[in-house]
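## retry 2 of 3
previous attempt timed out at serialization; input unchanged, resubmitting
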Amino acid sequence: MKNELRFLMLLCYVAALLFIAFAVLNAIFAGQLLTTDNLFITMVCLVMAVVFAAIPILQMKEEGRLPIPFRKRLARPQDGKLPAPSAPLLDAKGRAVPPDVRAMVAQMRAPKREE
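## retry succeeded, writing output
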């Protein structure tokens, strides 16, 4: 499964690069760049390049291999497993509970120490 995924990601990269190359070649060899036909071909090629490049980028983001600037990283355990996300605390009407109430509920749920 991993090899097939790598092959598909490679195909996506190659397709994106080919579309970008075709857009650049169209810009270089076109007589007039700002005609409707040339702008249409260039934009279609660039949109297709973005579509093919988005798939590997999203896959890398999902696997955690793509660094996202200005984003706090969650502390990961040493064994590589992610902690189970806790369900959001909701009130009786289904609304999110304010942070101060969440803190009080967390204190009440904490195990009591015997003295």
